[in-house]
Structure prediction request, 540 residues.
Amino acid sequence: MKNKLRVAAYCRVSTDKNDQVDSLASQIKYFTDYIDSHKEWTLCEVYYDEGISGTSVKKRTGFNRMIYDALNGNIDLIITKEVSRFARNTVDTLSYTRKLKEKGVGVFFMNDNIDTRDSDGELRLSIMASIAQEESRKTSERVKWGQKRRMEQGVVFGRDLLGYFVRDGKLIINPDEVETVKLIFHKFLIEGKGTHVIARELEEIGIRPKRVKHWSNTAILRVLKNEKYVGDLCQKKTYTPDYLSHTKKLNRGEEEMIYLKDHHEAIIDRDTWNKTQFELARRSSSKKQKSKHSNRYWCSGKLICGECGHRFVSRRKKLKNGEIYKAWRCYASTKYGQAKTNNSGENIGCNNSSINEKILISAVAYSLKFLKINSKSIKENMLREIRLVLNLKAKKNINTASLYEQIEILNKKKRKAIDLMLDMIITKSDLKEQTDYYNEEIEELRKKIDLAEKRNIAQSQQIHDIKTYISEIDRMLNYNIEDTNVYNSALNKIVILKDNQLIIYLNAVPFGIKLHYSAKGKGKSYHFKFKYLGKTIEGK
Prediction:
């Protein structure tokens, strides 16, 4: 008696929802009955996967187990519903069917009527696999588009986080964790503690973090930088560049982020939030300079040489009368002296002059005074800029949904051309000519979509930056100009140029204030003058 053909079946559903589970059960029963109805066949097993995407086979345990059994001589034939159920990746489909064929194992795709044991099986399979892959890409784009629209409507995607539950697309405060969030901000901003210290102290008092075993400086930073605690929502911080691999990457401008202000109930007030972000930026800037004195002086790490780009460092000198003369000097000048070329051909040293700290303090005080006097006009100009950006955005707005629809129409035409070739109405060369044309059109449409999304990102970021500047101006209006303790948070940097020129950059405004100064005398006789926009200001 002839040996019966050992036949296995494979089925897969791409979600674990109840209706799909029922569908899986139906598929298993169908394949079992179908194989049993063939007297020359014997059922090996019905392999299956639930809730797993078809674009990759890495996590499909049922599929991988079936391939292992087949390659080890336990299966003669595999039957499956269609190519898209087997794999939605052309490379995977052809790779696995070829491996199986080498071992004498065939694959029969029932709905597509393709049998890899036939002479033209691989040709027909490659065409159908390509269509399946294109369908997967199209589905991915539809899902991404739909998610983006929901994000714009304020629907939250993601998991619970410290201080909040995520329920039905909404952020709901977790009362048991609110105080932990507030404590972290207080320790950082009010107590001035570093992230490592905060992490250690939370561990010591027995407060547990979310989703990780122990607190770390990284975990603390995630809390301090998370806009959700001030009531805002930023989504699409990560993106998936490849629909086949599903690998996520940090979004560094590749795709438009969705930022919604005052989206939900805040845990941290906006003033505390703004101060925290500037303090984070200040400490980060200081760390980059690797200066052990980074927090010692109000302007540490913020004085930039306009000649060579190095930082200015503090220098103290005791005068004969016992008075301390404090000045700042370019690091390159301090280390190497005047500008010159060393034996290795490197340019070292700097010709910039040192500057008395009194001048710097007065320059910042004048800049803050200038900001207070002109705050109304500065904010009006910024708001005008926002209106211009919005008007430009409206004029140049491209309907990406329409572009996606055009791509879909072209893909349908591609699939129709393939059907015509299979029906032998057109030749392979005709098919290639048509698909090449459609692919070129699709590529142009994708370029337009990409350009529109990048423009939206840039415009949204510009508006966000201007709003931040306005908020910071309002905060700085309450500063005591005579108190140097506020200068550190107010000041972004000072660029010190030759010929007695300074450019003051405050955190609240996107432009620099350029001052000319002159100085005479030493000690108590020391005095100086500022010139700005034709006005002279004296100090000592």
